[in-house]
Amino acid sequence: MKRSTAVALALSLGSGGAFAESGASLDTDLQAVSPVLDHYSRTRLADDLWKRNDLSPRDRSLVTLAAVIARNQTAILAEQLELALNNGVTPAEISETIAHMAFYAGWGNAVAATTVTRAVFNARNINAAQLPEAEATLLPLDDKAEDSRATRVQNNIGTTAPGLVKDTTDVLFKDLWLRPGLAPRDRSLVTVSALIANGQAQQIPAHLNQAMDNGLTRQQASGALSHLAWYAGWPNAFSAASVFKTVFEQRASK
Amino acid sequence: MKRSTAVALALSLGSGGAFAESGASLDTDLQAVSPVLDHYSRTRLADDLWKRNDLSPRDRSLVTLAAVIARNQTAILAEQLELALNNGVTPAEISETIAHMAFYAGWGNAVAATTVTRAVFNARNINAAQLPEAEATLLPLDDKAEDSRATRVQNNIGTTAPGLVKDTTDVLFKDLWLRPGLAPRDRSLVTVSALIANGQAQQIPAHLNQAMDNGLTRQQASGALSHLAWYAGWPNAFSAASVFKTVFEQRASK
Amino acid sequence: MKRSTAVALALSLGSGGAFAESGASLDTDLQAVSPVLDHYSRTRLADDLWKRNDLSPRDRSLVTLAAVIARNQTAILAEQLELALNNGVTPAEISETIAHMAFYAGWGNAVAATTVTRAVFNARNINAAQLPEAEATLLPLDDKAEDSRATRVQNNIGTTAPGLVKDTTDVLFKDLWLRPGLAPRDRSLVTVSALIANGQAQQIPAHLNQAMDNGLTRQQASGALSHLAWYAGWPNAFSAASVFKTVFEQRASK
Predict the structure, then answer these.
(1) Residue B199 maps to a domain
(2) How far are the Cα atoms of A214, B184, B221 from residue B210, in angstroms, in the given order?
(3) Cα–Cα distance between A225 and B167 in angstroms, integer?
(4) Which of C190, C199, C237 has its CA nearest to residue A163?
(5) Which of B40, B184, C142, C151 has the highest CB neighbour count under 10 A?
(6) Taking a C-beta distance cutoff of 8 angstroms, is the pair A193, A66 a contact?
(7) Is B140 exposed, middle or buried (0-12, 13-18, 19+ CB in 10 A)?
(8) Are B70 and C154 in contact (CB under 8 A)?
(9) Inter-chain CB proximity B98 and A37 less than 8 Å
(10) Helices assigned H by DSSP within chain B
(11) CA-nearest residue of chain C to B224?
């Protein structure tokens, strides 16, 4: 089911109707209700934003998927999944991104995403053999960094929410983040994207620093932020921008 | 498809079932599950909130549409669209409000809204001739104000997110905000409503000031805030109220 | 329609498909798209989180329902309603929780919940006789506490949003909170849960204090917070945790 880049890009904007499993035709809805959004979808999204050099199409798809799942925007999830697969995001990476979002956006968001994703996978004959197993061989743990993190959290909220502290260690940092199906740099990218998408500025600095420690460049981080204005709204992007600025400045001055 | 005011008001509260395209009967759901919400919908919403003098029914509909789209509450969107049309919001204004929300609440929210809106428009025989064109003759730009805004943003986050800064100028302030299909005062009203609805208090002062500069009275702003408690929840209204208070006081002391 | 505890617990995790009215099979979606989430749902949710001693299964269900409604996660609402009924939450309490969420998460969230709930109620032959009436005999008002609250709010935002202040008194504190269908301690629990679930940290201290004044223990509050990490996402739980810590410390030092 190979498609041209032009078509793939067109899929980024609520204009993937022709390929939707349901027969729903989102592009026609856009045209019928908001001619200017249909216009922007071609001139501003497909022909501009998705082609900019500060972030690869593949990374843009990861960022967009994270935002769409984190905000429960199932109306555009199918077309974004199609675009992601066309942009080189693997089925395994999509599967792990959804699992990651269960923790960074909530269980129900991930469950809602699996229903849409299953239909897209089925249509492409993507099957279990292409997906990460439940119990994978984990990446090696950085004991020192993890001890430091765990101690900080324990000192902070250890007596306030011991159950939360325990799950954070056992499930998130000694399991989820070590799963090999999604590289740490990419986990950081989708985590930061989810935080921006849901307006959780307070949690951004730690994860943005980790993302950059994990290999995300400043240009890519900036590109992700600019990209997300379109999918998470300008107010979330602007609130995150001042946090990004501070993190960038602190890292530059080190 | 003229309807009485009483019916139109009834439509404001999850009781628009009789008119829903799908045959789903929301009012019956309310009655069947929560008799008290059904009771409030008549005594507190239809017979009280929507009739208060601090905001016109037409403005209440704009405010509610913005909140419902910004929060992706598609369950009550069809009935709110019906009510808006009955309250004098034009199809062109609805179209522009949806486009505006793509930027202030995220692309996926707007796309989801177009699907519901298309069905409502079709049922009323509203067609493309009644909607704003993609490329309209723009309102004149206030060069001085725009230079001041652009300079401030550039100084703030110009090196952090150059792509975002560019899109903010080119797409938002030199295009979207100048489109004639929705008056600047109304664009400000739906923008502030979206910010309240999504708990983005940090972004409220600039837009509330702009709204009042654009002609929104203090009484109307206050009425919109009180109205939104019902559609965006009390916590969002209370968080916004302290911001509104500060803005009102700063403007009064000038 | 009695079910075993094991099945009831399994229902907590997006694996309630076999019982869904629609025939949709969420558990199969999880398995098909994210084997690890399916694995976590059994090992981490059903066999661990839902069995912890810091919060009863019945309270966990109230907390989860509040979060799911507050975040409009309708994809897992039906299974959570089934689980809640199995855990001892009464139909009357579910009805009142939905009404309460209309005010603490927005009218549209409650309306969307009634549609799903009606189907679950119908399948269990739950009828109007088991639900609270619209106009119930109210619990006695604590005049002194209410005067103090009303005076504080009036001084704060009385001139900013008089309509909001009036509705807060008349509808919320002299009506909704006094309805007998849900105990004050439980209303506080679902209110705090909704605030955590929607990232409204600013509003948490007043309601958490009220919850504990209403009988919620520190251990239960902590358990609810840890529980919500799973259903509202880790970032919301962590942002709330520092607020909980401050409230716990302030109460301990009194």
Answers:
(1) no
(2) 41, 9, 12
(3) 12
(4) C237
(5) B40
(6) yes
(7) exposed
(8) no
(9) yes
(10) 5-10, 26-33, 35-40, 57-70, 77-86, 91-104, 107-123, 143-157, 162-167, 184-197, 204-213, 218-232, 234-252
(11) C161
pLDDT for the residue C254 = 82
Task: Say if the Cβ atoms of B167 and A229 lie within 8 Å.
Answer: yes
Packing angle, helices A26-33 and B107-123, rounded to 10? 70
Average pLDDT over residues B161-188: 98
CA angle C130, C136, C141 (to 5 degrees): 135
Taking residues B216-229, what's their average pLDDT?
98
Q: Pick B75's closest partner by Cβ from C102, C111, C128.
A: C111
**Contact (CB<8Å) A230/B106:** yes
ipTM: 0.91
Query: Considering the domain boundaries, does residue B24 fall inside one?
Result: yes
Q: Within chain A, where are the H helices?
A: 5-10, 26-33, 35-40, 57-70, 77-86, 91-104, 107-123, 143-157, 162-167, 184-197, 204-213, 218-232, 234-252
Phi, psi dihedral angles at A217 (to 5 degrees): -80, 160
- Per the structure, the count of domains in chain C is 1
Burial A57-78 (b: 16+ CB within 10 A, else e): bbbbbbbbbbbbbbbbbbbbbb
Q: Amino acid letter at B142?
A: D
Judged by CB atoms closer than 8 Å, whether chains meet at C157 and B44 is answered as no
C143-162 residue pLDDT tens: 999 999 999 999 999 999 99
The reply to whether A30 touches chain C by the CB within 8 Å rule is: no
Nearest to C104 among B29, B199, B235 (CB): B235
Each residue's pLDDT tens digit, B52-70: 999 999 999 999 999 999 9
Distance between CA atoms of residues C73 and A108, nearest Å = 6
Test the A interface: residue of B21, B114, B135 with most A CBs within 10 Å = B114
- pTM: predicted TM-score of the whole model, two decimal places: 0.92
Query: Measured between alpha carbons, how far is residue A206 from residues A82, A174, A199, A209, A244 in Å?
Result: 31, 18, 15, 5, 11
The answer to whether position C6 is within a domain reads yes
What is residue B71's predicted lDDT score, i.e. its pLDDT?
98
Residue B89 inside a domain? The answer is no
Beta-carbon contacts of residue A155 (< 8 Å; ≥ 6 apart): none
Do the chains contact at A233 and B106, CB–CB below 8 Å? Answer: yes
The confidence band for B13, taking pLDDT boundaries of 50, 70 and 90, is: very low
Residue C20 has pLDDT above 60, yes or no: no
Q: Which of B11, A65, B104, B233 is nearest to C71 (CA)?
A: B233
* Chains touching A (3+ CB pairs < 8 Å): B, C
With tokens 């203090």, the residue in question is B218
The whole domain housing A37 covers 1-51
Tokens in use for C59?
Answer: 């309270």
- Cβ neighbours of residue A236 under 8 Å, at least 6 residues apart? A196, A197, A198, A199, A228, A229, B106, B200
Query: Which residues 128-167 in chain B show a CB within 8 A of chain C?
Result: none
> pLDDT category, B254, cuts 50, 70, 90?
confident
* Residues of chain A falling short of pLDDT 50: 1-25
Distance between CA atoms of residues C67 and C226, nearest Å: 13
CA-to-CA distance for B130 and A240, rounded, in angstroms? Answer: 38
Q: Confirm or reject contact between A200 and chain B (CB < 8 A).
A: no
